[in-house]
Amino acid sequence: MKKIMCLPGHGFLDDFDISDLLEHEFSQCEIIVPGLFKENQWIYPQEAIPYISKLCEQLRPVLIIGIGLGGYYTIKMHNYRRICINPSTFYTPMVFENSVTLEELDNHLFDSLSENSRRLLRCYFIHELPYIFPLKKFMQHLKNSVIDIPRCRGNDETIFECVIKPIIHQLISPVWDLCDKYDEMKIYDGGRLEYYLVKKNGKYGILDSNGNEIVPVIMDEVHEMIDTDGCIPLFKDGKWGLVHFYN
């Protein structure tokens, strides 16, 4: 059974338990919520991060989802596919007696963040008051991995259903079981969630959600979709071509 780890925090689904939503929507997976409390107090980051890292090594989750402070911890788990929602320490000082440890975490949050780690991450800012969250800082370090969603587009349940749930389905897709077959695999950034860009021996191709090669791994370049009809430009041996998602 695949495992999804959920790291709690603040700032999203305050009136709901996201782990309950995950258990309902992804009953085929085991939902793991680590205990980040000791004697009814939150444990500090310098203890929480090594604990979560060791737990990940033991359980090997296919996906980590972190909210608020848990989103900060999620970013530090570099070798895993992960989603962070409203990553922030804004609400957190009230549960820690010493806020210096939060400042240290904030200052070194993006240390050791490699390009591969960045590709494995999706970061959602869902807000009414954007100044609460360090959006610009995250945009600077995570580039296209950041998705900014004003809460006026819908309530938390709607946002989970329409935005968060589809990306979870994608990130736990069986196609990731094929990752050892290729040198590199990532979600295709052309606007279609159900496709994956792969690389092997310096050549590129595209897989569908079942792992089928809809573009063989022989291309020198694969570019982003050029229009809403689903055409993707390909480059091989000095020549250009197109592949269409639907036919």
Question: Would you mind describing this structure in some detail?
Answer:
The chain is an alpha/beta fold and about 250 residues long. The protein contains 7 helices and 15 strands. It has helices at about 20-25, 45-60, 70-75, 100-105, 115-120, 135-140, 155-170; strands spanning about 5, 30, 35-40, 40, 65, 80-85, 120-125, 145-150, 185, 195-200, 205, 215-220, 220, 230-235, 240-245. A hairpin with an 8-residue loop joins strand 9 (about 185) and strand 10. The mean pLDDT is about 80.
Keywords:
247 residues; alpha/beta; four-stranded antiparallel beta sheet; 28% strand
Question: In terms of topology, how is this protein built?
Answer:
Layout: E1 3-7, H1 18-25, E2 30-32, E3 37-38, E4 41-42, H2 45-59, E5 63-67, H3 69-75, E6 82-85, H4 100-107, H5 115-119, E7 121-127, H6 135-142, E8 146-150, H7 156-171, E9 184-187, E10 196-200, E11 203-207, E12 213-219, E13 221-222, E14 231-236, E15 239-244
Give the total of beta strands.
15
Q: Over all CA atoms, what is the radius of gyration? A: 19 Å
What are the segments in which pLDDT stays under 50 over at least 5 consecutive residues?
Answer: none
How would you write the strand order of the largest sheet? 2-1-5-6-7-8
Short description:
With 247 residues, the chain is α/β, with parallel strands linked by helices. 27% of the residues lie in helices and 28% in strands.
